[in-house]
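Field log, afternoon session.

UNIT: design team B
ACTIVITY: writing a sequence onto a fixed backbone
BACKBONE:
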């Protein structure tokens, strides 16, 4: 898969910050990830010119100079003194966001990619400064992401290339995996957990998936550029509405068949008889303590219990029932 422009620019900045001297364009082409994809020297030259201009437009002090006193070839580097930021004051929320970004940078995939880039520079004969402002550390683990680093890497790549993905998913650890096909819109965090938001082609609806419940076999499918993120979509709002616990006193309404779902019936309060799909029963009202547990309990009764309200609970129960049906067919 081709390297994205953003990733290529980051690789270039890392390389130019990590050397004492100037790096020639040819060594950049052979050593910095993203430039070897160029089909010809002319294509690389055009790409590199655009990237240099973009870095300068971003305010990055790119310098041009001779590689050495004995080598008149033109090379490039970033002026570290001019690149350094003045002291920055952050609010608590901004500091937390920076901390998460820093931890993500130290995830195994990114550490491997960065170290690989610098090893290529060394192999090309470029002197890499050991005091360069690019830190390397063994990852202590990103909160809420442990074990899902590979999944995150593939999803971010698919989001960047606007490509659909298929992956195994289960609503909870006790339930079987089913294959989902999703058009990914973005990945966000909520309450220390990581979530994928996108359009679920199987459900024909917007869905949120916790990364820890996605299996390792994530596969991009279809052509790049096929996914369109809706204008004005608020990923954080979608996740917050999906995963936030309903407040104490929140209630659900559930239909239960006569003579069935006894434990569920005892936990609730009857608010009237109702016939549903030709079966006699009643509607009960339940206090919501845990949305996840209640959805699991209702789904466990199959057709003898039907979630009516709220809609998010109903959707969760339906998704669980469908996953059981699909697992039985496989």
């Amino acid at each position: 898969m081709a390297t994205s422009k953003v990733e290529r620019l980051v690789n270039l900045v890392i390389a130019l910050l990590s050397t004492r001297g100037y790096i020639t364009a040819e060594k950049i082409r052979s050593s910095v990830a993203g430039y070897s994809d160029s089909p010809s020297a002319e294509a690389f030259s055009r790409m590199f010119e655009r990237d240099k201009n973009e870095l300068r437009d971003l305010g990055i002090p790119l310098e041009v100079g001779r590689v050495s006193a004995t080598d008149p070839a033109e090379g490039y580097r970033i002026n570290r003194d001019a690149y350094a930021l003045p002291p920055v004051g952050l609010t608590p929320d901004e500091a937390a966001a920076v901390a998460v970004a820093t931890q993500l940078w130290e995830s195994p995939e990114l550490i491997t990619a960065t170290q690989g880039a610098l090893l290529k520079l060394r192999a090309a004969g470029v002197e890499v400064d050991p005091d360069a402002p690019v830190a390397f550390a063994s990852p202590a683990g990103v909160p809420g992401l442990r074990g899902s680093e590979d999944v995150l890497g593939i999803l971010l790549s698919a989001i960047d290339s606007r490509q659909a993905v298929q992956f195994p998913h289960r609503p909870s650890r006790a339930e079987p995996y089913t294959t989902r096909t999703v058009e990914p819109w973005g990945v966000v965090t909520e309450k220390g957990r990581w979530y994928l938001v996108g359009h679920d082609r199987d459900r024909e609806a917007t869905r949120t998936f916790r990364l820890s419940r996605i299996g390792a076999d994530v596969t991009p499918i279809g052509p790049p550029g096929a996914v369109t993120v809706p204008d004005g979509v608020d990923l954080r709002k979608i996740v917050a509405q999906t995963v936030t616990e309903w407040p104490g006193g929140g209630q659900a309404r559930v239909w239960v068949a006569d003579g069935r779902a006894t434990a569920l019936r005892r936990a609730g309060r009857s608010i009237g008889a109702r016939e549903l799909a030709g079966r006699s029963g009643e509607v009960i009202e339940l206090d919501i303590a845990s949305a996840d547990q209640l959805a699991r309990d209702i789904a466990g009764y199959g057709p003898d219990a039907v979630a009516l309200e709220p809609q998010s609970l109903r959707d969760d129960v339906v998704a669980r029932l469908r996953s059981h049906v699909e697992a039985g067919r496989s």
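LOG NOTE: Confidence is low (pLDDT under 50) at residues 133-143, 245-249.
NEXT ACTIVITY: expression trials, pending approval
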